[in-house]
Amino acid sequence: MKIDVRNRNSDLMIYELQNIMVSIESLNEYYLNSISTIQKMKLVIEEEYKIGLLVDDGIQKALSTERIEDAKQIIEKMNLQKLSDGKKLSDYIIVGCYAEEKEPSFSYSIKEKSGIKSKYVDPQKARREYNKIDQYENILISSTLSSVIIIFEQYLARVYKGLILINPKKYFQNQKIEIASIFNKNVVGKVGSLPIAYIIDCMAIVFPLLLS
């Protein structure tokens, strides 16, 4: 009795496709849980370092001006800016701006009894901690993209190996092994379009930040 190799090929690819769907779903859940955790961490950093971040934003804005007088005005307005608790920035720290060799320089002093910790006021430390959280997001997105590529590479490798083992004589009798000859029209017609559609659906779910 002659075995229908074409049906076995199709069954193999469908089986491997089901496995890849499980892997993608797991990766999707991992990404969503991880990005949620990172976003919560970012909110904590923004709250803890809100004064340091505000000062850093003001200093960067002042540095972008061409005149020292303009830079001083920006810092003066920042000192009077109200925070989320209704108090002014100057109730916690005083930021100064002065000229040094035609370039603006800045200083700050924490007011006594303000109750604020110095590490949360330092603008450089505040920006560094915030940027680290931003890097967490970038690393997560990059690693997830890499994982998707690896999953589909493994899928193709397993199918490739399985199809050869089903009918090894076809590919090892004094001839070159060509992928085009393995994935025949019968197989491609049945399952070839499924991975592409599934990739599109998963990308829309797993990578909303990239697609927004």
Describe the structure in your own words.
- The protein is mainly α.
- It has helices spanning 5-48, 50-63, 68-80, 123-166, 168-171, 179-182, 185-191, 193-206, 208-211; strands at 93-100, 103-110.
- A two-stranded antiparallel sheet has the order 1-2.
- Strand 1 (93-100) and strand 2 (103-110) form a beta hairpin.
- Helix 1 (5-48) packs antiparallel against helix 4.
- The longest helix has 44 residues, at 5-48.
- The chain is elongated, with a radius of gyration of 30 Å.
- The two termini are 56 Å apart.
- The model is unreliable at 1-5, 185-196 and 205-212 (pLDDT under 50).
What are the main properties of this structure?
212 residues; mainly alpha; two-stranded antiparallel ribbon; 9 helices; 8% strand; elongated
Question: What would you call the shape?
Answer: elongated
Give the beta-strand count: 2
Q: Which spans of ≥5 residues are poorly predicted at pLDDT below 50?
A: 1-5, 185-196, 205-212
Give me the Rg, rounded: 30 Å
Beta strand % = 5-15%
| Main sheet: strand order | 1-2
Following the backbone from N to C, one meets helices and strands in this order, namely HHHEEHHHHHH
What would you call the structural class? mainly alpha
Distance N to C terminus: 56 Å
User: Whole-number average pLDDT?
Assistant: 77
Q: Helicity, in percent? A: 55-70%
**Mind describing the biggest β-sheet?**
2 strands, antiparallel
Give a brief outline of the structure.
The protein is built from 9 helices and 2 strands, in the order H-H-H-E-E-H-H-H-H-H-H. The protein has helices at 5-48, 50-63, 68-80, 123-166, 168-171, 179-182, 185-191, 193-206, 208-211; strands at 93-100, 103-110.
